[in-house]
Automatic annotation (TrEMBL):
InterPro entries: DNA-bd_HTH_TetR-type_CS, Homeodomain-like_sf, HTH-type_TetR-like_transc_reg, HTH_TetR, MftR_C. This is Transcriptional regulator, TetR family. It comes from the Bacteria. It comes from Klenkia brasiliensis. The keyword Transcription regulation applies.
């Protein structure tokens, strides 16, 4: 057990070194000017080691989402609520954990996403990839006409979420993220 703990700590430290090195380089030289090799060198690891942790440079900023963590939060919302409300409440719970554990890193991440078109595309790709997984936990039956409509609603809610994070970054985190989410979902309801 102690050996596994040591390995986990080492993996976490390497991931943190790579992430910190990448952000320092992005700040100093601009996102587009930094290569994977630059990040690996600054973190004192090999390029293959970089790829053991991240698929691409974009994944340093926007790693694969922990869909099980997101599904857990969404599954805790009352099933009798309308789909957008379940998603909004699930987002509130997720944001609460982000605010408690990773606020500065999250702001830094989303500010870079806001500034870089390639990262905004990656954010929208993550949004689309999440839709199918979340449809299952929310009980959306993709084979029915109602399910198809629910997928559209789910996609709109995920887009509202991404927009909220981008607006939050634009304000430097000065506005509460939950407030921005509520505004985005209010805009959805007004359509």
């Amino acid at each position: 057990m102690a050996n596994e703990d040591w390995r986990t700590l080492k993996r976490d430290a390497t991931r943190r070194r790579l992430t910190d090195a990448a952000y320092e380089l992005f700040a100093a030289h601009g996102y587009d000017a930094v290569s994977v090799a630059d990040i690996a060198e600054a973190a004192d690891v090999s390029v293959p080691t970089f790829y053991a942790y991240f698929r691409t440079k974009e994944h340093v900023v926007l790693p694969e989402q922990d869909l099980s963590w997101i599904r857990t939060h969404l599954s805790r919302t009352p099933a009798d609520l309308p789909l957008p409300e379940r998603i909004r409440l699930g987002l509130h719970a997720i944001v609460g954990e982000i605010e408690e554990h990773a606020r500065p890193e999250s702001i830094r991440r989303w500010q870079l996403v806001h500034a870089e078109p390639a990262l905004r595309r990656r954010a929208y790709d993550r949004e689309r990839a999440s839709a199918d997984s979340l449809a299952e936990v929310l009980g959306v039956d993709l084979a029915t006409p109602e399910g198809a409509a629910d997928v559209v609603v789910l996609s709109a809610c995920l887009s509202a979420s991404t927009t909220s994070f981008l607006r939050w970054a634009e304000t430097g985190g000065t506005r509460p993220l939950t407030e921005l989410i509520d505004e985005a979902f209010a805009a959805l309801r007004s359509i």
